[in-house]
Amino acid sequence: MKIQLWRNATTLLEINGKRILVDPMLGAKGSMGLLPMLKEQLPNPLVDLPFSKQELEDQLQNVDAVLLTHLHPDHWDAEAQRVLSKELPVVCSPELVPELNKQGFTNTLAVNKTLKWEGVQFDITEARHGTGEIGAMMGTVHGFVLQTSAESLYLAGDTIWYDAIASVLHKFKPAHIVLNGGAARFDRGGPILMTSEDLIQAAKVLTSSSYYIVHLEALSHSREGRARISSDLAEHGLKKRCFVLADGEVVDTDVN
Question: Residue 207 class from Cβ within 10 Å (0-12 exposed, 13-18 middle, 19+ buried)?
Answer without folding.
Answer: exposed
